[in-house]
Design goal:
single chain, alpha/beta, eight-stranded antiparallel beta sheet, six-stranded antiparallel beta sheet, globular, SIS_dom_sf, Ntn_hydrolases_N, aminotransferase, cytoplasm
């Protein structure tokens, strides 16, 4: 995720950069760095750890200059240390770059550059950009950056400066960049809060935009060099609203960040030509005879989706355990067991202790983790990072959907490696996975969100809720109920739909809303049969259907349409609608969704 700040003008750049980075540290706190110049020199200073470490160094050794770029890092490629921190400079120190995002083809580019004599200092994918720009540079920094970006695949927000030019060149694809316009000064940042102390006039750059800023102003083009026009917008948010990106709450902001989070989870890992995924996992997939998935709360439900995916695609027996119970039941573990722990923070104490229990019995261990450098990552044999970025809201949104997407990739990796999934099947699922960011973006279209809001408000004063799903979407029902409980405090239960008649059906009456996930699947017909059982007992059915399914719409009291998706990726798309239903229910009741009572973001006590 990371945070970028850039400045050119009459002020001391160090002050502007540190002020801006302090507003963006929520985007990354693995390391921070600045590059500051004033004609004839650029000095780079960077430190691992939180921004305070860099600030302390700058107090002792302040940097003078009125042009600069700064960065606070959320590590993806390479450990969070001084060397891998941004900015990155070329060997002669003339070109300095900062990059957010992931360069998919960086390994191939790095090998080619090393073959032409380039020497690399860091483990990052980002440093490739500095060398590509250096190769392309012949006096015009803008053209060199444009040429370099033409060679890369992936997501990026990039800012570049050169010792011989009093300008900053920037570009974005997927990773956000906003430009601030002042009087005789210009700014760049990943998010509005970094700039509000200096200007309220902002230009939001679009995907594929390049911009050159100087003391005299700015010019914007596309990646082909064609001029582009973007409106300057006046921002009147207060500081708190700005940190939330103009959204009312962090939770809503993070719901809307999911297309980007999913892109970061998937990008660089999917290979359409072979139907395979590259997860950079060193463990031997042929050595496992069984898998244990261990997690708590939302992560546990992501693990239940993972169980379904892995058993279907890789044909390995999987069991999912609540972490707090795992080590107390004397689990059956051997060296042929793969224990997968799932955690957003990597610090959840129950999951950490379960990990240690599995290792004690000889299991190989893998983590599906968001936070790099966390306690779990230091004890795991291997880690599959989800790259969702920092999540501020207590109720997980983007981390959950990124975890589910990571399990899909893990199931594909295991299936292809073990020969249980053909190249053709793999290619079909890869295509479906690539569609996820677009499908989630579509799920967040204003008319869809408004439809969910209306249903949520209609049932906001219900005392109880029931969620039902089948197959790979039965965990989605559990996750939907959990979200509603967490932030609205309405009692909610969830069941596999076929289980309803074995007891829960006794709860159904005319006052009970029953949310049923009935999107396209092999089990849709059976799910609709379960809906009929609810209707026969006067329950109020909220039916979640795939776009175009008008035939089954008649079975619902209220119908919410969801973008049509491949069954195996549908839990991600459907989870977004569950999040919105819970969110609008809670806000209708006046609840604080970002800080629900009795809950903490990371549970570090047993």
């Amino acid at each position: 995720m990371c945070g970028i700040v850039g400045y050119i003008g009459g002020r001391q750049a160090q002050d502007v950069l540190i002020s801006g980075l302090s507003k963006l540290e929520y985007r990354g706190y693995d390391s921070a760095g600045v590059a500051i110049g004033d004609g004839g020199h650029i000095t780079v200073m960077k430190k691992a750890g939180k921004l305070a470490n860099l600030e302390a160094e700058l107090e002792v050794h302040p940097l003078s200059g009125t042009l600069g770029i700064g960065h606070t890092r959320w590590a993806t490629h390479g450990l969070p240390n001084d060397t891998n921190a941004h900015p990155h400079a070329t060997e002669d120190g003339k070109i300095v770059i900062i990059h957010n995002g992931i360069i998919e083809n960086y390994l191939k580019l790095k090998e080619e550059l090393m073959g032409r004599g380039h020497e690399f200092k860091s483990e990052t994918d980002s440093e490739v950009l500095a060398h590509l720009i250096e190769e392309a540079y012949s006096g015009d920094l803008y053209e060199a950056v444009r040429t370099a970006l033409g060679q890369v695949r992936g997501a990026y927000g990039i800012v570049v400066t050169h010792v011989d030019h009093r300008e900053i060149v920037a570009a974005r694809t997927v990773s956000p960049l906003v430009m601030g316009v002042g009087e005789g000064e210009m700014f760049l940042a990943s998010d509005v809060p970094a700039l509000l102390a200096y200007t309220r006039e902002m230009v939001f750059l679009h995907d594929g935009d390049m911009v050159v800023i100087s003391d005299d102003g700015f010019r914007i083009t596309d990646l082909e060099g064609n001029p582009q026009t973007r409106e300057i917008e006046h921002i009147d948010w207060d500081a708190e609203a700005a940190e939330k990106g103009g959204y009312d709450t962090y939770m809503l902001k993070e719901i809307y960040e999911q297309p980007t989070a999913l892109t970061n989870t998937l990008i660089g890992r999917l290979h359409d030509d072979t139907g395979e995924v590259n997860l950079d996992i060193k463990l031997d997939p042929s050595s496992f005879k069984r898998i244990s998935i261990i997690a708590c709360g939302t992560a546990f439900y992501a693990g239940l989706v993972g169980e379904y995916m892995i058993e279907q695609l890789a044909r390995i027996p999987v069991e999912v355990d609540v972490a707090s119970e795992y080590r107390y039941r004397n689990p059956l573990v051997s060296e042929n067991t793969l224990a997968i722990v799932v955690s957003q923070s990597g610090e959840t104490i129950d999951t950490l202790e379960a990990l240690r229990e599995a290792k004690k019995h000889g299991a190989k261990t893998l983590g599906v983790i968001n936070a790099k450098g966390s306690s779990m990552t230091r004890e795991l044999d291997d880690t599959l990072y989800i790259h969702a970025g920092p999540e501020i809201g207590v109720a997980s949104t983007k981390a959950y959907t990124s975890m589910v997407s990571a399990f899909l990739m893990l199931a594909l990796w295991l299936g292809r490696a073990r020969g249980t999934l053909s190249e053709e099947q793999g290619a079909e699922l890869l295509k479906a996975a690539r569609e996820l960011p677009r499908l989630v973006e579509e799920s967040l279209a204003p008319e869809r969100v408004e439809a969910i809001k209306q249903v949520a408000e209609k049932y906001a004063h219900a005392r109880d809720y029931l969620f039902l799903g089948r197959g790979v979407n039965s965990p989605t029902a559990y996750e939907g109920a959990l979200k509603l409980k967490e932030i609205s405090y309405i009692h909610a239960e969830a069941y596999a739909a076929g289980e309803m008649k074995h007891g829960p059906i006794a709860l159904i009456d005319e006052n009970l809303p029953v949310a049923v996930i009935a999107t396209e699947s092999r089990l849709l017909e059976k799910t609709i049969s379960n809906v009929q059982e609810v209707r026969a007992r006067a329950g109020k059915v909220i039916l979640f259907l795939s776009d175009g399914d008008t035939e089954n719409a008649r079975h619902g009291d209220d119908v919410i349409y969801v973008p049509r998706a491949h069954e195996m990726v549908s839990p991600v798309v459907n989870a977004v609608t569950m999040q919105l239903l819970a969110y609008f229910t809670a806000t209708a009741l006046g609840k604080d969704v970002d800080k629900p009572r009795n809950l903490a973001k990371s549970v570090t006590v047993e």
